[in-house]
């Protein structure tokens, strides 16, 4: 059996335990303080050694350098004047008492478009190439002035048929015609040359042929000689232009045959020329018609006058 504890000794045991605990705690704190003191002493000794080394280095550097110039002393700063904090009412400016006018927004005008100046183009004069003049193939009659043709005689013969005369034979649309040489001027080639047309001219006017004697008005001979059976294809294949002496026009023909001498007695003369006044007669031996150029010229002049009346 266990021995019962003495109840009277329990308070003493508790006090003894408390004192033992205090003694134990004090002993541990003393040991910690002693260890800390040893560490701090080592640190302080190391810092003192470093300080002694820095002082020795600084003394050596100071001995090597010249005497230092004393640093300038800063000028004494002036104290600002005291500012009174007492409030005093300021008079209101006169401009503030004036009623402010409303500020109008600025008027923005649309930009004015100034047209760019047109570039100045220098006028260049284009020189037209010179017109190639057509030279005559044959000069039939060299007289420059027109001589008045006397009226025909009573038997229908013109004045130039009073004696034998020279004639030129040519073809127009298959019809052979004869014209006295005294009534002709020159023969010009038409093949390979372009005629210059003129506005407002009649159908029997083919155009202008530039020649050495001037601008020659070329006529459609077939339209005058055979108006009843004329065709448009008669204008094709025209080879020559025969100028008429004393006039500024010429006859367009297809072929020029030859010249021959005719006896007035070999010609069947027309005494009445009502319908075809330009037909003087017929050469029976050569089966060709003999033209009276003066009568043809009057027909052409009257036809031109009628055409002018139509245009007006």
Automatic annotation (TrEMBL):
InterPro entries: CheW-like_dom_sf, CheW-lke_dom, UCP020479_CheW
Domain CheW-like: from-to ranges: 164-302
Any Pfam family the entry gives: CheW
PROSITE patterns associated with the record: CHEW
GO biological process: chemotaxis; signal transduction
Name listed for the protein in its UniProt record: Purine-binding chemotaxis protein CheW
Species of the source: Pseudomonas graminis
Lineage of origin: Bacteria, Pseudomonadati, Pseudomonadota, Gammaproteobacteria, Pseudomonadales
